[in-house]
Known about the structure:
mainly alpha, 80% helix, 4 helices
Amino acid sequence: xxxxxxxxxxxxxxxxxxxxxxxxxxxxxxxxxxxxxxxxxxxxxxxxxxxxxxxxxxxxxxxxxxxxxxxxxxxxxxxxxxxx
Length: 84
């Protein structure tokens, strides 16, 4: 729902002195969301956050590929194990 720019902006407002509760009310987010953002994006710039998101997407794509290949290997092993 929020872009990297918006998330970094909220975190910079917090660094400028606004309390977490005020920011949560102002932006309509929960405390848990704010603290998750802070742990994940704290100290980052927008370009770094975008790169992080791109790397996470690539990582999930590669994990799906590995899982698909593992299933194919398992199926091939089962087929080869049968006696004809």
